[in-house]
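Intended use. Records such as the Aromatic ring-hydroxylating dioxygenase subunit alpha entry shown here are meant for training and evaluating sequence-to-structure methods. They are not intended to support clinical decisions.
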Amino acid sequence: MTVHASDTASEAASHAAPADLVARRIPGHSLEAPFYTSDAFFRLDVDAVFARSWIFAAAEAELPEPGDYITLTVGAYSVIVVRDDDEEVRAFHNVCRHRGTRILNDERGSVGNIVCGYHHWTYGVDGTLLHAESQPPDFDRSCFGLRSVHVRTVAGLVFLSLAAEPPADFGEFASRVEPYLAPHNLARAKVAKQIDLVEHGNWKLAMENNRECYHCAGHPELQRCYFPLYNFTENEVPPGMRATFERFQKADAEARATFESLGLPYAAIEELVERPTGFRIEREPLDLAGESFTPDGKAAVRRLLADFPTARLGHLGLHLQPNAWFHFSADHAVLFSVVPLAADRTLVRTTWLVHADAEEGIDYDLDTLTGVWVATNEQDAVFVSRAQLGVSSPAYAPGLYSPTESQVESFVTWYITRLTAHLEGP
């Protein structure tokens, strides 16, 4: 019987402690199998990454009125994100201060007050305890408000941190990206559609898949309007994509002239590794009509998000470690978030925003608006599920990243840094 080295390495990795696997990660290579397959790493990822970072939670458009809320579940955590009576966005742990009961059980809704269904302790949408029946005379309601979760809004996007002391660099991140986002008027948009897709793969595989276009030949709908040249340098462009690259160069020169004439920031800012709140942002042209993510590149929504003099603004792309990416065009925005459900299951939520006054059937057709990304997401779900099957095989061994996968390497390096900091302690 022949024993292959890959089989031996795979078996050894399955028995190694998470700290040892983190310490021996080889730069430029994919992670060892347990990072993607083990329950121990799933729990570690929640504790070290999702509970200690700033994560994207929702669009403000999902909370248009006071009392509107969503709930977000990350591992054992459940969070209520709600708009209060002063129209501020707040976040609280979804845990009653009486005996710990989960309070709100729906994914979204609207409340006057937040009422626990068990013993009817009642909280205001600002988290204060308003009513608790049958308490002693010296009971101090002010000591039993809902436990707050750190929450920040940036140009219509809602971020939260479960950490007692969240990463201190969020203010700098916000100041860097807000000038890019603000022109799109997201705080006054509305949700046209939201789709939840459960991918049968680890959350890191979903994020890695998004960070490269090496596989973009598998996205024919997207490739019609999106230049599939992400992370390719001029010298790396394959011969078969040379015409596309030349078309991109022409569109890019025209787009930069437009961006500058309108005072829209467009230069790439890439700080994916060196900061806790790693991000990348850049405004780029789109192919064909250059207006939107549609089969012909034309705007999907007649009513633009803001008072832009032209719809030909390409797209503004923002990527945030660890769980989100965004595309903003003149006519709509598409928001993507990733939430780990289990070692081999991940929720990918896609939200389309349009102008608050845009009317379906008049200003836009929903299938045209969503079609490119619906197809792309379904294709990506297949790729991620196949990747999960592959890393689960005893024959799997970490492979070498292509130069065009540099942002995958950046994501994995950022992730390993977060785990290392957590495992080493204060």
